[in-house]
Amino acid sequence: MRVPPSPPETSSLIRRLADTDIARFVSIEMIQTPLPDERYLPWRELRRRQPTHRLDGPDFMHSEDGSAPSFQLTHEEWWYTVRKARQQQSRTIPTLLSTDGRPFSFVLTDAVLRDSDYVTGTLKGDIAGVVIPLSTVIRRVAVE
After folding, report:
1. pLDDT of 82-94, one tens digit each?
2. What does the mean pLDDT of the chain come to?
3. Residues pairing with 76 in the sheet
4. Under the phi-then-psi rule, with left for phi > 0, alpha for psi from -120 to 50, and beta for the rest, what region is 87?
5. Does an H or E element contain 94, and which?
6. In angstroms, rounded to a whole number, what is the distance separating the alpha carbons of residues 113 and 30?
7. Which of 38, 82, 99, 140 gives a 20 to 30 Å CA spacing to 55?
8. Helices (H), strands (E): how many in the chain?
């Protein structure tokens, strides 16, 4: 079994961009990346896909002639925007530590909240006392 590749260090990416291309760095910082509603994409999967954001339009820095830059994000830059969005929405459990001593954090995405609401609503039963088997609930959540 191969060990999955580690994601790029965001601090080195920030340092490199800030030193070489400050306009690109500021444009990347302005991206408001929504977390995908479907599934969590770890680095090993995200790096095989085409970045979904371009740096262009009225919200980004303009050059001296007033035109907006237009360039595709690299995979590392895309990972940085996704990671930044996850960190902004994350919750931390300070008593649960990782192997390197950092607190465990997680993100409650819309899909997780929707499925949690479905499970809660389905398992509470009704006045007649009809209970839906847990296997049915798990099957429905897994399919969607």
Report:
1. 888 888 888 999 8
2. 75
3. none
4. alpha
5. strand 90-97
6. 27
7. 38
8. 6, 4
Q: Is 8 helix (H, G, I), strand (E, B) or coil?
A: coil
The distance from CA 15 to its chain's CA centroid, rounded to whole angstroms, is 22
Q: Which positions ≥6 away from 115 have C-beta within 8 Å?
A: 141, 144
- Comparing 19-23, 35-39, 94-98, the range with the smallest average pLDDT is 35-39
**Under a CB-based contact definition with an 8 Å cutoff, are residues 54 and 71 in contact?**
yes
pLDDT in tens, 101-144: 989 988 887 778 888 888 787 777 554 555 556 665 555 555 44
Can you list the positions of beta strands (E) in the chain? 54-55, 71-72, 90-97, 103-107
Residue 124, phi-psi category: left (phi > 0), alpha (psi -120 to 50), beta (remainder): alpha
Cα(125)–Cα(1) distance, integer angstroms: 44
- Contact present, 34 and 85 (Cβ < 8 Å): yes
For tokens 């002639």, what's the residue?
65
The length of the chain, given as a count of residues: 144
Name the residue among 12, 6, 19, 34 with its Cα closest to residue 109.
34
Position of tokens 């979904």? 52
